[in-house]
Amino acid sequence: MDLPPTLLAITTFVLHKVGVGSRRAVAARLADEAGLSLWQFAVLATLADSGPAAQREIGGRLGLDPSDMVRLMDELIGAGLAERDRDPADRRRYRVSLTPAGRDALERGRALVERVERETLAPLTADERERLHELITKIFR
Amino acid sequence: MDLPPTLLAITTFVLHKVGVGSRRAVAARLADEAGLSLWQFAVLATLADSGPAAQREIGGRLGLDPSDMVRLMDELIGAGLAERDRDPADRRRYRVSLTPAGRDALERGRALVERVERETLAPLTADERERLHELITKIFR
DNA sequence: AAAAATAGTGGGTGACTACCAATTATTGGT
DNA sequence: ACCAATAATTGGTAGTCACCCACTATTTTT
After folding, report:
1. Which of B2, B3, B6 best probes binding to A when mutated, by most A CB atoms within 10 angstroms?
2. Tens digit of pLDDT for each residue in A74-98?
3. What is the DSSP string of A108-134?
């Protein structure tokens, strides 16, 4: 794959290529070393970061459709990584929380992601990696 | 969409988000202001950058499956942006080249892409934009 | 001359993404 | 008590993406 200069000159083009590539790498590693999908990992991270919440709230945070969220939660519950109880204050909602196994899975996932991250960003020095994160974060509203 | 810190801390995660978002923006603008798909634009750019070539070579350069390349070429030919003649030296191959209309479309596309690029990267100064391009290119082997 | 390789073509798949509509249970507002 | 809104659920759809296989025409290799 020997991309033409015109395309290589487009920052967003290269950005997309790198983004998709690294996402794929992360997803693959996560899948076969932790049995987690990217979304599953994202939900676990959300739960750990902001505590137990209703499905809709987690989905909202991640920009995930409620219906897709249901299916995702089914997987997590099935794998014993999360549990849902009805919120006693509003019995329409669930109160989804991490199980200890979920916490473990998240930590394993975190370590894996970090490793892939290091590999992907290997061509950069530590300073450059930090700078990149800074710049890309600025763009990401 | 209020992503959890754990995810925001992952450079490749944000990279992917930004990449997909900007790709979408470029594709949309290209589609409704130049009637070009992203791949069509990419092929035009390839042709302009490295001259007439066989379909397989263009596809190879772009990492595109030969069968998908065929369909893409059909579109370009249909729109009068490219033409293909059999390579007299090897009549299995085509010799695909840009038409004047193709050249025009490419230039219009280029301008549009540049505009979206500026909008997307607006949060960055000119220096930062250049730095970002440098860093991201380093990663993209 | 026969066999292997290559370019293009057509038809198709599986995964993934991002939706949407309808339904049920429950709640809050009036 | 009634109505509108909300949470979760089920069962879809449409688009894109990255492939793969079988086939024809042509060229290269043996």
Report:
1. B6
2. 999 999 999 999 999 999 999 999 9
3. HHHHHHHHHHHHHTTTS-HHHHHHHHH
